[in-house]
Structures are given as structure tokens and as C-alpha cells.
């Protein structure tokens, strides 16, 4: 197998670029030619209930829950046209995906708002809850870059109007003491015994009236009248649609009515968010909403009625008798006032197809098809070709029941104008042209197909890869004889045996077990989510190292709802390294899910989730509670209140000691004692308040079967770097640790970018591990440039790279370096593309350097000289 070495070039036409990015002023913009509604997320397994409206020129988000950005990224939905966001509730489930931070100019971003900014959107207009703007203002204190400006539209006082829609918002409020779980079905809802949970819940219904074009240009009539095709493709045709007609170069005058016909009808639609059964009578009796739908507007290009009703509901509510009664009455009212009765048949779909005047799209979380697919491909490849224990299959691939349910759901193909359709990801309803429901071809999660799709003969065939993997296994068996054994029977590393005086016959180490839920930096990609490591330190205790957006989704994807729920119940602590959102943006989703589960188990009792974080997190937590009124769900320990910071200069190693005069420190020490854990923060120079952590815990031995017993005389040690460049204090503090998890955001070719953002490269992270004399170094936190795998293919006996959903114990570590040289054969196309881009970047930097110093502008005359101009991670 031979990898390609090439540089990709693009040729751009100036006129093409001008035409592509030309946007006329609002005064001259006409109704768009296409309008569609796409389901981004259905709400399944705590995922987002989000929609995307697309007019071809502008995109509108409806709700932006956690995970929305990753869905947009995977399906290549460009953020550059997202200019509006409509929110149906001021709830964390609806707005959590809007937040973000990153490094502008480095293509490392997080959150839809900042992704839009990087794509060129300077202003994002939000519609609905006034507090969304306040929420975004609060996030700016932990963002290191400029985010998209968030502007409230004032839709509550007057309709929002652009060239596609006139939109009216109808707030419906209910005073309730049960707001933390108002989105839950009745039988699952739990009550929080907290005065803060007693508040007024407001949900917003949005009535979208489409602006109708007057005429449609008939190309057949145009060609029959002799209008040249170049004229049809130019702006001259506007004089036909907007004026009396068009005069050709030969003097022929063509009147508008000769080459136009009435534009096809485009229906209106309503988005209705009903969080609980208590809201049903409020909607049924809302005369303002009912009047807006039935009254004929005075504007010529608007009409009354609607043909699509989108329901955002808890699972099971749509089929309830009370909701069906409401829908029956509502549908009758809309049908009686429908404009379809007065329109000519030429403007409508065929009556054989259009059998119902109102269609219902139900978004209630019941759809089981996952909204993203890249994670299944990645994990299946690693599981099959490398290590079935370290790289487990995800729940949807592993569970026979889940696979069967997904196959059955994928076979469901609704007709374009079915009366009721339950939403699935990427399902569309096309309004202009009015073709109704369009369901994409869903690919089932079949292991054989996922494996076959991984290989592209242009880069590496499966046969070539299998040969390399056989060599890998042979080498692994030679150096690590027990590699083919079960996870519980593998010996600890030789280094750990020397340090702790234990042998293979003494014990194996079931804990700590580390699960990487996110290994990317700044923003999620198709294959990697942002920072989160789940650490199981005992049979009943888990903690998290950072918790970026989407961590809860990752946990559900790996384990399914039942096992994930058990883990959340046993989650005892989250350690936050710094206040960039890709390291803490998922905390409240995890905390809320945990609180709901514990309340279901023991109604009326509360168990707060302890969090150790920098001081800025206190302001963020207070603001969260004020904006969302969820009551107390976390117990916050602020680093300077618990530890002496900065660390006294005379202390070596530089581990911040506990305060002896703080009540918080006493409570904190009690928590750590209950976990039999030591936590030592280490200051690192990423931001002004960035920390690394050293953890020490008790070892366990596996005596027989599932019986585990503590072995108090031995401890394990783990260092988690968070985000940091090379740091001497970190090296000294972590000396001789068992495991170093170190960020390696950039490859060595991008050292200038890493220095600018105060990150580490692959080379510097490896050097840190060597200087620290760590038993093992796991590289983590990779830039989106390396979505599949980092640019490392050299064997080092104590260095490996992390992947999402990877589960490792200390006994597993010694095998991982043998996989590193072979990842590129599983992901040949991605490896080759990265190599080409790195080569192009090195050449560009080389040219820039020699343009500044012309006397050195000598073209390399050999490959050897060329390679000397680049920094290569050896």
C-alpha cells in the first residue's frame, strides 16, 4: 500500500465568487424559490428537539439544544446562512447548543453562535424569550474571541417580516411548581421540593405565513416566444415578473402575461410546543392565536389558514385523548377557513395526493434513528480491527433490540401528504414547491457495511489493510502475550509492578477505568466530541474530568439509557480545568439528567452534584439558576476557596495545598475521604485561571468473579493536563505518575498556531511525558484538522492516542502503542488528506519566511532539504 503525496489546488473565478456571495438589499429581495422544514433532532435520549427552516438564501433555527451543532456539522448544513433562531421555551434543553467559545481564525469553535460568527454571520437575531440575549451576554466572560452578536427581534410586540415569512409569536404561560420536569411525560414527571422551582413557565407558538410570489416564469412559454436562454439566466427576467414586460434586442416586446402563470400555492405552518397536559386547554382557548389563523390578512401576498402543524411534545402526549380532542377541534376550525377551497386546482397538488388539508409532524422523542452516524463508523472500525475491549461497540450497534427497532423505523416511508407523521432525523416537509414529506434513505447500522465503507481503493484497500493488521497482531502477541486475553486477566505494566511491588499473581486492576466521551478541542466534529473523560474509581463511584457540550449524548450513545442512567446516579464529582465552554458546556445537562433520575428514585430528596471549578464558574452557575429556575442541582467548590492559590513558591512539587481555615475545605475533604481519592490542582498557563489535576486513588484487586477488595497499601496516580502549553510546574508535580493524559491540540507543523492559542503540539506533549517520567502518556484534545486521527504513526512504547468511546484500565495501556502505526490503514483517506494539507501548510510557511528574508529565498533542490523546512514529530 502506498499513500499519495500531493497538494490540492483550487481555481476560483472572480465573477463566480461575486455571483455566489451577492445578496441584494432587502428592498429588492423577492420571495425565495424554495422553502423547506428539516428535522435536526427529535429529542430522543435527551437529544435536541430542533428544526431548520431553509429558503435557499436564509436559514432559521427552531430551538438549539445541546448537540445541534454536531448534527449541522455532520450533515454539512452551512452555518453561514443561519441568521435567525426561534425558541419555543426559555429552557436549557432548548438553548444549550447556542452557547460556545473558541479561537477565531484557528477554525476551532464551539456552539452554533460562534460557528456562525466564524462562517461570517455577524448578527444572529433571536425570537421569543427575552432572556436569551441576557444568557449570551453572560457567556462572553469565558469566551476568548468575538462571538456573533445576539439581537432580540421584538417579535412579541410586532410580527417579524422578511422576504420569506411574516411570523407572529403567541406566548402561553402557566404558573406551576413542577418546572424542572415539565418536559417529561406525566408518568415520568417528578417534583423538586424547592421554592426556586415554583415559577411561571412560558411557551411560544409561532405562526409562519409565507409570502406568496405573484407569478411564476414559464420557461417553455419563454422559449416558445423566442427569449434566448442567456436572457432567462440573467437579471433581465426581473422586468417580466416586476414590470410590464421585456423588450428583446430585435425589438420584440414580450408582455408578462404571455410568459408567466400564477405561482403555485405555498402553505402556512404553525409550530406548537406543549410541554405538559396543563397547557392543552390554554392553547385551545387562545383566541388571539385562533383569530390570527382564521382571519384573512389585508396584504395581497399573504393568506390565512395553515397546512402543516408541527407538534413539539413529550413522548406519548399526541395520542392522549385530551390532546386528540384539541387537535380535532383545531383541525375543523382550520379546515373551515382554509384558502385551499378558493384556489384553482392548477396552483395545488393533485387532489389524488392532497387528501388532507392539515398535516401533522410530531416531534416527541419517539424516533429511534440516531441523528448522527459518524460515531458508529469510527467505533465499529476500531472495535473490529484493533481491540474489542478498549473500543466497545456503541449501544445501537451492540443491542439486537435497538438494531431491530432502527431497521423497522428506517423502513417507515410516509406518503408526501400523510395526515400524521412522527419525526425522524433529516426528514423534510417541502412547502415551496409544495411536495409534502420527504424522507431520506436511512442507512442501518450494519457492522459489515460500516467496515466496508471505511476503505477507499484509491488510498488503501481492505485486503491491504487486513495484511497490515495481521502484522500488527503478530507483533502485539510477540511483545504482549496476553493481548488476546480478556480485559480482567491482563497483567499490569512492568513499570507499575516495579513501582508498587505487585506481580501478576497479586491482582489485576479493574479500577480506575477511563472512558473518553470527548477527545476533540473546541468544537465537535463528525467523529469526535469535545472534552470529557469519565473515570470509574470504584464499583459505585464515577467522576468526570471536564464535561463539554454533548457529553450526555455521548454517554447515552455508548451505554443506552438504562446503563447511562445507572452511571449518572453514581456520578460523584466533576473537575473543571478552565472556563472555556468546550470544557464545561455540558455540565448542566448532566446535572439535570442526574437530578431527574435521583428524584424518580427518591421523590422529595435531593443529592447535589459536586463540582470543583475556577471562580468564574460561580457566576455562571448563579446566572443559570436565575435564568432557568431549576433549583439547586450542583454543589460548587471554588478552587481558591478550597486550595491555597497561587501555590506557595517553597512547596515542591508545586501542588496547591488544602486550606485549613475554610468550611468549604472541610466539606471538600470529607467528600474526597468518602471517595478515597486525592485531588491536587496544578496551575497551568493556558488562561489566567487554568488548572491541571493530579488524582491519587486506592487500588483494587480482583479475587474471584465479581468480588473486589481494597488493597490499601498501593495507590494509583493520574495527571490530567487540561489545556496547556509546555509547563515546568506540571512536569514537576506529576513526576513518576502512572498515567499522563495530555492535550495535543496541534501537530508540530502547526506549532505557530498552538503557541498563539497557548496549546501543546504532539511533540511537546510527548516531551512533557518524558520529562515527567510518566509510566504512560495518552494524547488527547485534538484539533478538528485531525477529526479521524492525529498525525502520529510512530511506535513509542509508552505513548498512545485517545479516541471517543475508548475504555482503558491501566492493564490495557501497554498494548495501545502497538496500534499507533496502523491507524492510518483503517483511515487511509483521512490520513492522506491530512498529510497533503500539512505539506501545503509547511510550504506556505516556508515561502512566507523567505519572502521576509529574500536573501534566503533558495528553492530546495531535494526532498531532504524540503523536509528540513518542516517540523516533523518523530
From TrEMBL:
Work out whether the entry's keyword set contains Metal-binding. Answer: yes
Which terms are listed as keywords in the entry?
Endonuclease, Hydrolase, Metal-binding, Nuclease, tRNA processing, Zinc
The biological processes this protein is annotated with in GO are: mitochondrial tRNA 3'-end processing
Q: Which Gene3D superfamilies match?
A: Ribonuclease Z/Hydroxyacylglutathione hydrolase-like (3.60.15.10)
Residue span, tRNase Z endonuclease domain? 50-97
Q: Which SUPFAM superfamilies match?
A: Metallo-hydrolase/oxidoreductase
Example GO molecular function term? metal ion binding
Under catalytic activity, the entry for this protein gives: Endonucleolytic cleavage of RNA, removing extra 3' nucleotides from tRNA precursor, generating 3' termini of tRNAs. A 3'-hydroxy group is left at the tRNA terminus and a 5'-phosphoryl group is left at the trailer molecule
- Per UniProt, what is one Pfam family of this protein? Lactamase_B_4
What EC number(s) does this enzyme carry?
3.1.26.11
Q: Domain Metallo-beta-lactamase: where? A: 544-782
Name the needed cofactors. Answer: Zn(2+)
Q: Which GO terms describe its cellular component?
A: mitochondrion
Similarity field: Belongs to the RNase Z family.
In Swiss-Prot or TrEMBL terms, this protein is called: ribonuclease Z
Amino acid at each position: 500500500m502506498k499513500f499519495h503525496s500531493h497538494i490540492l489546488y483550487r481555481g476560483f473565478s472572480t465573477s463566480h465568487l461575486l455571483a455566489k456571495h451577492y445578496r441584494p438589499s432587502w428592498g429588492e429581495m423577492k420571495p425565495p424559490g424554495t422553502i423547506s422544514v428539516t428535522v435536526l433532532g427529535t429529542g430522543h435520549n435527551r437529544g435536541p428537539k430542533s428544526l431548520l427552516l431553509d429558503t435557499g438564501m436564509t436559514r432559521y433555527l427552531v430551538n438549539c439544544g445541546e448537540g445541534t451543532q454536531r448534527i449541522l456539522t455532520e450533515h454539512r448544513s452551512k452555518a453561514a446562512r443561519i441568521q435567525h433562531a426561534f425558541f419555543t421555551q426559555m429552557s436549557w434543553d432548548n438553548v444549550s447548543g447556542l452557547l460556545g467559545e473558541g479561537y477565531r481564525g484557528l477554525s476551532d469553535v464551539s456552539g452554533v453562535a460562534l460557528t456562525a460568527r466564524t462562517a461570517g454571520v455577524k448578527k444572529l437575531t433571536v425570537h421569543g424569550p427575552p432572556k436569551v440575549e441576557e444568557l449570551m451576554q453572560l457567556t462572553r466572560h469565558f469566551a476568548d474571541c468575538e462571538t456573533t452578536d445576539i439581537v432580540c427581534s421584538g417579535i412579541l410586540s410586532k410580527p417579524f417580516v422578511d422576504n420569506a415569512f411574516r411570523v407572529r409569536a403567541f406566548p402561553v404561560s402557566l404558573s406551576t411548581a413542577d418546572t424542572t420536569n415539565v418536559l417529561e411525560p406525566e408518568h415520568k414527571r417528578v417534583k423538586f421540593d424547592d421554592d426556586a422551582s415554583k415559577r411561571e413557565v412560558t411557551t411560544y407558538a409561532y405562526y409562519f405565513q409565507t409570502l406568496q410570489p405573484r407569478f411564476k416564469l414559464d420557461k417553455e412559454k419563454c422559449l416558445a416566444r423566442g427569449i434566448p436562454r442567456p436572457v432567462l439566466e440573467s437579471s433581465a427576467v426581473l422586468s417580466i415578473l416586476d414590470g410590464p414586460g421585456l423588450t428583446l434586442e430585435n425589438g420584440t416586446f414580450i408582455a408578462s402575461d404571455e410568459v408567466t402563470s400564477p405561482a403555485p400555492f405555498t402553505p402556512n405552518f404553525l409550530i406548537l410546543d406543549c410541554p405538559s397536559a396543563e397547557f392543552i386547554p390554554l392553547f385551545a382557548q387562545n383566541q388571539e392565536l385562533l383569530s390570527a389563523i382564521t382571519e384573512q390578512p389585508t396584504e395581497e401576498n399573504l393568506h390565512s389558514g395553515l397546512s402543516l402543524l408541527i407538534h413539539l411534545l413529550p413522548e406519548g402526549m399526541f395520542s392522549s385523548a385530551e390532546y386528540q380532542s384539541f387537535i380535532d377541534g383545531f383541525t375543523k376550525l382550520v379546515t373551515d377557513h382554509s384558502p385551499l377551497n378558493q384556489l384553482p386546482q392548477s396552483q395545488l397538488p393533485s387532489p389524488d395526493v392532497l387528501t388532507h388539508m392539515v398535516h401533522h409532524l410530531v416531534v416527541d422523542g419517539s424516533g429511534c434513528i440516531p441523528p448522527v452516524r459518524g460515531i458508529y463508523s469510527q467505533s465499529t472500525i476500531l472495535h473490529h480491527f484493533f481491540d474489542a475491549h478498549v473500543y466497545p461497540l456503541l449501544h445501537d450497534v451492540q443491542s439486537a433490540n435497538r438494531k431491530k427497532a432502527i431497521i423497522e423505523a428506517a423502513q417507515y416511508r410516509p406518503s408526501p401528504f400523510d395526515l400524521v407523521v412522527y419525526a425522524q432525523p433529516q426528514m423534510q416537509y417541502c412547502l415551496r414547491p409544495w411536495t409534502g414529506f420527504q424522507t431520506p434513505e436511512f442507512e442501518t447500522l450494519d457492522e459489515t457495511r460500516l467496515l466496508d465503507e471505511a476503505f477507499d481503493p484509491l488510498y488503501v484497500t481492505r485486503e491491504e489493510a487486513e495484511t497490515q493488521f495481521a502484522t500488527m497482531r503478530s507483533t502485539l502477541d510477540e511483545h504482549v502475550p496476553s493481548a488476546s486475553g480478556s480485559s480482567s486477566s491482563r497483567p499490569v505494566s512492568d513499570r507499575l509492578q516495579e513501582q508498587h511491588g505487585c506481580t501478576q499473581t497479586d491482582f489485576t486492576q479493574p479500577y480506575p477505568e477511563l472512558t473518553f466521551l470527548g477527545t476533540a478541542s473546541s468544537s465537535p466534529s463528525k467523529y469526535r466530541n469535545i472534552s470529557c473523560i469519565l473515570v470509574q474509581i470504584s464499583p459505585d463511584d464515577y467522576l468526570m474530568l471536564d464535561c463539554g457540550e454533548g457529553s450526555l449524548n455521548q454517554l447515552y450513545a455508548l451505554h443506552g439509557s438504562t446503563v447511562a442512567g445507572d452511571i449518572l446516579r453514581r456520578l460523584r464529582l466533576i473537575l473543571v480545568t478552565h472556563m472555556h465552554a468546550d470544557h464545561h458546556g455540558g455540565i448542566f445537562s448532566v446535572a439535570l439528567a442526574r437530578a431527574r433520575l435521583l428524584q424518580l428514585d427518591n421523590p422529595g430528596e435531593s443529592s447535589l452534584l459536586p463540582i470543583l471549578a475556577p471562580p468564574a464558574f460561580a457566576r455562571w452557575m448563579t446566572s443559570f439558576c436565575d435564568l432557568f429556575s431549576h433549583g439547586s442541582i450542583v454543589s460548587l467548590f471554588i478552587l481558591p476557596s478550597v486550595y491555597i492559590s497561587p501555590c506557595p513558591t517553597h512547596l515542591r512539587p508545586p501542588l496547591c495545598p488544602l486550606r485549613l481555615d475554610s468550611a468549604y475545605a472541610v466539606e471538600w475533604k470529607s467528600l474526597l475521604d468518602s471517595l478515597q481519592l486525592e485531588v491536587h490542582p496544578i496551575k497551568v498557563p493556558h488562561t489566567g485561571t487554568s488548572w491541571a489535576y493530579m488524582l491519587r486513588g486506592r487500588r483494587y484487586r480482583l479475587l474471584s468473579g465479581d468480588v473486589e477488595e481494597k488493597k490499601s497499601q498501593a495507590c494509583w496516580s493520574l495527571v490530567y493536563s487540561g489545556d496547556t502549553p509546555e509547563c515546568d510546574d506540571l512536569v514537576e508535580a506529576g513526576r513518576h505518575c502512572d498515567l499522563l493524559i495530555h492535550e495535543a491540540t496541534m501537530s508540530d507543523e502547526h506549532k505557530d498556531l498552538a503557541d498563539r492559542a497557548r496549546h501543546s503540539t504532539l511533540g511537546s506533549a510527548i516531551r512533557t511525558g518524558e520529562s515527567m517520567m510518566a509510566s504512560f502518556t495518552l494524547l488527547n484534545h485534538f484539533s478538528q484538522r485531525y477529526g479521524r486521527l492525529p498525525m502520529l504513526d510512530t511506535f513509542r512504547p509508552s505513548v498512545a492516542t485517545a479516541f471517543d468511546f475508548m475504555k482503558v484500565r491501566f492493564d490495557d495501556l501497554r498494548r495501545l502503542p502497538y496500534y499507533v502505526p496502523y491507524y492510518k490503514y483503517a483511515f487511509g483517506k483521512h490520513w492522506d488528506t491530512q498529510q497533503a494539507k500539512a505539506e501545503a501548510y509547511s510550504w506556505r510557511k516556508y515561502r512566507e519566511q523567505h519572502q521576509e528574508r529574500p536573501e534566503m529565498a533558495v528553492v530546495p533542490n531535494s526532498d531532504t532539504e524540503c523536509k528540513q523546512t518542516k517540523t516533523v514529530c518523530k
